Amino acid sequence: MGNLSKTRILVEGAIMIALATVLSYIKFFDLPQGGSITFEMLPLVVMGLRHGPKWGALTGFVHGLIQMILGFSNVLYCNTLLSQAGCILLDYLLAFSVLGLACVFKKMVKNQFAGCLVGAFVVGLLRFVCSFLSGWLLWGSYAPEGQSAYMYSLIYNGSYMIPNIIILVIIIAIIYKINPRIFSKQ
Predict the structure, then answer these.
(1) Distance from chain centroid for Cα 117
(2) Distance, CA of 116 to CA of 104 (rounded, Å)
């Protein structure tokens, strides 16, 4: 890959990070302890589908760093250094990095359209797993009396992540039907 190609991908990644950051502020639903319904995941997944796991995960990772910096007060709610590290990893770095791995699951399906949808769906589920684990292991104290931290996290995180995943897959399908070339390297 030539320097021009790398530069183009870096610029595209920066644009996708900026777009994801802006989209993170356009919220259709916002939960009291964090989590919202947005289009934030879309640019990160598209980056992964277009340029592979290395560039996709890097783009997601940088976006996660930016989200962490913008919402660092959330990390400070954790009482111990270990729980703060878990929060940084599960709520920010891993949660957004996995979105860039959509191409890995895209390649498992022969049909490119179906592969894009499967890739988007699976990485959405992986992000949900990060949120679920964080809610269960770190934020379980917010569970209502009589409800397990496990069930609380499943319900709480599912209430916004499932709609986010559905929206992501639908938008990927619409974009693909309009212009399939968007999901392949140029």
Answers:
(1) 15
(2) 10
Q: Which bin fits 81, alpha (ψ -120 to 50), beta or left (φ > 0)?
A: alpha
CA atoms within 13 A on the CB side of 2: 2
pLDDT in tens, 45-62: 999 999 999 999 999 999
Q: Are 101 and 126 in contact (CB under 8 A)?
A: yes
**Rounded-to-integer distance, Cα 58 and Cα 28, Å:** 27
- Residues 60-69 as b/e (b if ≥16 CB within 10 A, e otherwise) read bbbbbbbbbe
Here the tokens at position 68 are 């962490």
Structure tokens that stand for 6 in this block: 């790398």
User: How far is CA 176 from its chain centroid?
Assistant: 19
Residue 31 sits at φ, ψ, to 5 deg, of -90, 155
Helix or strand or coil: residue 30? Answer: strand
Cα–Cα dist 107/126, whole Å: 17
User: How many angstroms separate the CA atoms of 116 and 185, rounded?
Assistant: 14
pLDDT confidence band for 186 (50 / 70 / 90): low
Contacts (Cβ under 8 Å, ≥6 apart) of 4: none
